[in-house]
Amino acid sequence: MDFVQLAIVGLLVGSVVGLGAMGLTLSFGIMKFANFSHGDMMTLGMFLAFAVVGNMGLAGPQMAPLSIPVGLIAGVVFAAAGVALLAAGVDRVVYRRLRRRGSATITMAIASLGIAIMLRAAIQLTWGPLPARYSTGINPAWRLPGDLLIKPDQVLIIGLTLVLAVALYLIMYRTRLGKAMRATADNAELADIAGIDTERIRLATWMIAGALIAVAGVMFAVQAQLRFDAGFEFLLPMFAATILGGIGNPWGALVGGLVVGISQETSTYWIPSGFKAGVPFMILIVMLLTRPRGLFGSTF
Questions:
Q1: 3-state secondary structure 132-173
Q2: Lowest-confidence range among 119-128, 173-182, 212-221, 245-254?
Q3: Spatial CB neighbours of 185, under 8 Å, sequence gap ≥ 6
Q4: Cβ-contact 80, 211 below 8 angstroms
Q5: pLDDT by residue (tens digit) across 41-76?
Q6: Which residue of 39, 81, 111, 164 lies most exposed, with the fewest beta carbons within 10 A?
Q7: Residues 146-185 pLDDT 10s
Q8: Where are the domains of the chain?
Q9: Interval 177-227: pLDDT, tens
Q10: Whole-angstrom distance, CA of residue 289 vs CA of residue 292
Q11: Radius of gyration over alpha carbons of the chain, in Å?
């Protein structure tokens, strides 16, 4: 396959990884622990959308030239809201209690791992172990100059990633909520003293991160199959993107995701595809040795 064509595929994969990593690094920047349930919340998002277009029978006609049904619009909204509420609920039931007890960050991380395992089991129990699809619609590729191919679905995914990245930027830098989030991430105790309701900020952070990862899950499933373990497979690439861009930096996470996706796919131009998963982590090791704070540092 042509190198540029591989780069286009990598851009698509990187968009999904980057969008998920933005939510991951956002929650890490404020909560200060690695959320291992993030990948399985991605899986939940794709299956909640499937509940709308599949189980509820609200698929509707295909949105030509896309392959997806019109009902997936409602599915995305339902998935984003559902995962956002779940993330907020888990914080209230589990993480807030651990914070009040002064639990160490490793305790919080292990708790999130337990939640991930339970969530994956619940998804498999509810929707079964077999893969599924949103639609069997045809999505013919557009031919670009240079005999390159790109599908309308792929253009939608890349474009939606950019729109959500801009939306997150506006929230972070043009709203009072964003200012409070940045203050909480910088110093939660000082933010408390200044009158900021840090618990409310944490709640909002979980909801934003949950919505982002849900959309990322739906985007992935548009181009692939829905599998109960799909989000878990994306977890390590999302962590790699988060560290590459700079922990706590959403924009760095997006760029890190693009680096992960493009390097992974273009590497198959020289090496067998079975080894491509290790390429981003080689880049990560080099980055940690030469620039430990990541490409853009570790602040908002």
A1: ECCCCCCCCCEEECCCEEECHHHHHHHHHHHHHHHHHHHHHH
A2: 245-254
A3: 29, 30, 248, 299, 300
A4: yes
A5: 999 999 999 999 876 656 777 777 878 888 889 999
A6: 81
A7: 778 888 888 999 999 999 999 999 999 899 998 999 999 8
A8: 18-229
A9: 989 999 998 888 888 888 899 999 999 999 999 999 999 999 999 888 899
A10: 6
A11: 19
The pLDDT of residue 1 is 56
The C-alpha atoms of residue 24 and residue 2 are separated, in whole angstroms, by: 33
Residue listed under structure tokens 């997150």: 168
* CA–CA dist 13, 223 (Å, integer): 10
Of 20, 273, 29, 47, nearest in space to 172 by CA: 29
Q: Is the dihedral of CA 230, 155, 171, 26 positive or negative?
A: positive
Does 139 or 283 have the greater pLDDT score? 283
Q: Which of 28, 22, 37, 30 is nearest to 200 (CA)?
A: 30
Question: Interior CA angle at 113 toward 108 and 117, to 5°?
Answer: 145
Residue 62 has a CB neighbour count (10 Å cut-off) of 17
* CB neighbour list of residue 86: distance below 8 Å, 6 or more residues apart: 41, 44, 210
Tokens 């760029």 locate to 255
> Among 165, 199, 271, 209, which Cα is nearest to 35's?
209
